[in-house]
Design brief:
By secondary structure, the protein is of the alpha/beta class. The chain folds into four domains: 30 residues; 226 residues, TIM Barrel (Alpha-Beta Barrel), CATH 3.20.20; 90 residues, Sandwich (Immunoglobulin-like); 25 residues. The chain is 37% helix and 22% strand. It is built from nine helices and 18 strands. The strands form four sheets. Strands 1, 2, 3, 4, 5 and 8 form a six-stranded parallel β-sheet that branches. Strands 9, 11, 13, 14, 17 and 18 form a six-stranded mixed β-sheet that branches. Helix 5 links the parallel strand 4 and strand 5. Helix 2 runs parallel beside helix 4.
C-alpha cells in the first residue's frame, strides 16, 4: 500500500514539475529581450560629431540612469545566450548592452559610466582598430574589470562585409579573407587578453548561411546582427537581433526601443541570410495574426527607406511594392507596426538577404558555364545519333 501511495505522490510531483516547466517555456517564447548596440561616446564638438552612431556622454548617462531608475536587469551576453539555448525565462525587464568596433571613448566614457551603475556590457572588437589611443593595455583593464567582456568583430571590418561577392571575388580569395576575419581576429583577442572569444557581431550586420557555418566551425557559439528586430527565447543564437542606439535619439525614442514587441511571422522571402540573383526579387512576409489597421500604421522599409506595400489581411501576406532593380549587395528589410495614437513602434520584424551578381562573369564561372554547355551539346548529339540509328534499323 505504501508503495502505491509513494508512486502516486511521485506522479503528482512529476506532473506539477512538467506543468511548471511547460508554463515557463510558453512564457519564454513570448518574452522579448532588447539588445542595445552602441559605437562611440564622444562629445558633440569632437571629430565624431557628424557620425550618427556617436552617442554623446550626457545622453548615454541619461539612458543608463533610466535603466537603473526603472529596475531594468542589465544581463551579460553570456547569460542571455545560455537562456536562449536552454529556452528558460529571464527576469522581466532584461536588457543586454553591446558596443561595436572599439574606440577610445569606450574606455574613457562607457567604462566608468557602466561601472557607476554596476552594469555590464560586451565590446565587439575589430582588432585592427587597436592603436595608440586605444591600446591592448586599456583593453586588458576593461576585460579584467568584469564590467566589459571583449568579443569578436573581425580583424579589419571589411567594407564588403563577410558575404562573398560572387561576381568579383574568387572562392579561394574569399575563404582566405573569411579565415583572416573570423579566425585570426579571434586568436589575436584570445592571445592578447587571455579571454575566450565565443561571440561575434557581423560587421554592417550583413551575413549569409555560409558565414554562419564558417563561424560555427571556428568556434563561435552566438552571432549578432545589426538590422533591428527583437529577440524571443525561441530565436536562433546565430541570428540574434540588436537595436542600434543613435546620437539623435531623445529619451522617449530610447525608451521605445526597450518596449518593441515581436511581430510574429511564419515565412520571410527572400529567407533570412540567403541570397538571390533576381534584380527585382519578391519581398514579403507572412504575418501570423491579422493586423488591426485602425490601430496600427504599417511601415515597410527596404534599407531604411519606407516604400509602398500590399497587405492581404485574409492570408496575412505583406508584400513590398517597388519597381527599381536592387543593387548588388546586402539588403535590410524591416516591417514595423506604429501605434497611430502614440506614434511609437510597438512591434517589428527584420531580416537581411543578399542580391548577388551572376557568377559566370568570373573565370571559374565561365569555365563552369562552358563545361555545362558542352555537356548538353554532347548529350544532344548522342540523342540525335541514337534516334537516327533506331529509325534506320526500323
Amino acid at each position: 500500500m505504501i508503495k502505491y501511495i509513494t508512486l502516486f505522490l511521485i506522479s503528482l510531483f512529476s506532473l506539477s514539475l512538467y506543468n511548471n516547466l511547460h508554463a515557463n517555456n510558453l512564457h519564454a517564447d513570448f518574452q522579448t529581450i532588447p539588445i542595445l548596440a552602441y559605437h562611440s561616446f564622444s562629445e558633440p564638438d569632437t571629430s565624431q560629431r557628424k557620425l550618427r552612431i556617436n552617442v554623446p556622454p550626457k545622453k548615454f548617462l541619461e539612458q543608463l540612469q533610466y535603466l537603473a531608475d526603472n529596475n531594468y536587469k542589465v544581463l551579460p551576453l553570456e547569460k542571455f545566450v545560455e537562456a536562449l539555448n536552454k529556452k528558460l525565462p529571464l527576469p522581466q525587464k532584461s536588457v543586454v548592452i553591446t558596443i561595436d568596433d572599439g574606440v577610445e571613448s569606450v574606455y574613457s566614457v562607457a567604462f566608468p559610466y557602466l561601472n557607476k551603475f554596476n552594469f555590464c556590457a560586451t565590446l565587439f572588437l575589430t582588432t585592427n582598430f587597436v592603436n595608440k589611443s586605444f591600446t591592448w593595455e586599456m583593453l586588458n583593464e576593461l576585460q579584467n574589470s568584469g564590467v566589459i567582456d571583449i568579443q569578436g568583430h573581425t580583424k579589419t571590418h571589411h567594407y564588403c562585409s563577410l558575404v562573398r561577392d560572387l561576381k568579383t571575388e574568387r572562392k579561394t580569395s574569399y575563404l582566405k579573407r573569411l579565415e583572416m576575419e573570423l579566425l585570426e581576429s579571434k586568436n589575436i583577442i584570445e592571445e592578447k587578453l587571455n579571454n575566450k572569444v565565443k561571440y561575434l557581431a557581423y560587421p554592417y550586420g550583413k551575413y549569409d548561411q555560409f558565414v554562419i557555418e564558417k563561424a560555427k566551425k571556428y568556434g563561435y557559439k552566438a552571432l549578432l546582427t545589426f538590422h533591428g528586430g527583437t529577440n524571443t527565447l525561441s530565436s536562433s543564437p546565430f541570428n540574434i537581433n540588436r537595436q542600434a542606439v543613435y546620437g539623435d535619439f531623445d529619451l522617449k525614442k530610447f525608451i521605445s526601443l526597450l518596449n518593441i514587441g515581436h511581430l510574429k511571422s511564419y515565412y520571410l522571402n527572400p529567407p533570412l541570410a540567403t541570397y538571390t540573383f533576381y534584380k527585382k526579387p519578391k519581398i514579403f512576409a507572412m504575418i501570423e495574426e491579422p493586423i488591426n489597421l485602425n490601430l496600427y500604421q504599417i511601415l515597410f522599409k527596404l534599407d531604411n527607406k519606407i516604400l509602398p506595400y500590399n497587405y492581404d489581411q485574409k492570408s496575412g501576406k505583406l508584400s513590398l511594392v517597388f519597381d527599381k532593380p536592387l543593387i548588388q549587395g546586402g539588403h535590410f528589410i524591416k516591417i514595423q507596426l506604429v501605434n497611430k495614437n502614440t506614434c511609437i513602434v510597438e512591434k517589428e520584424v527584420g531580416w537581411v538577404f543578399t542580391r548577388q551578381g551572376i557568377p559566370f562573369t568570373t573565370i571559374k564561372g565561365i569555365k563552369l558555364f562552358l563545361k555545362i554547355f558542352l555537356s548538353l551539346m554532347l548529350f544532344g548529339v548522342l540523342v540525335i545519333i541514337t534516334y537516327k540509328i533506331r529509325r534506320k534499323n526500323a
